[in-house]
Amino acid sequence: MAKEKEKMSFEQALARLEQIVRQIEEGKVPLEESIEKYAEGIELVKCCRSILDTAERKIQVLAKGQGQSLAPAGELDESADQSS
Predict the structure, then answer these.
(1) Cα-trace Rg, the chain
(2) All domains of the chain, ordered by start, with CATH?
């Protein structure tokens, strides 16, 4: 299963994660199966985070190539918000 997650696209991993969440939230899954699905969900979250981190690094490299700098994730330029 780990190999399958490595080949998943971000969209595929996110869709599977949403499916797992729905199944667990419905409460129709036995406890043991819920635990297995939870563990799978954790792996999917790691997969998604890895894909996002890679994309962020690529964007930073591209931006630097254009002479631009990017703020680290989570930081916004407040002056852009105030000019609206």
Answers:
(1) 18
(2) 2-64 (1.10.287.1040)
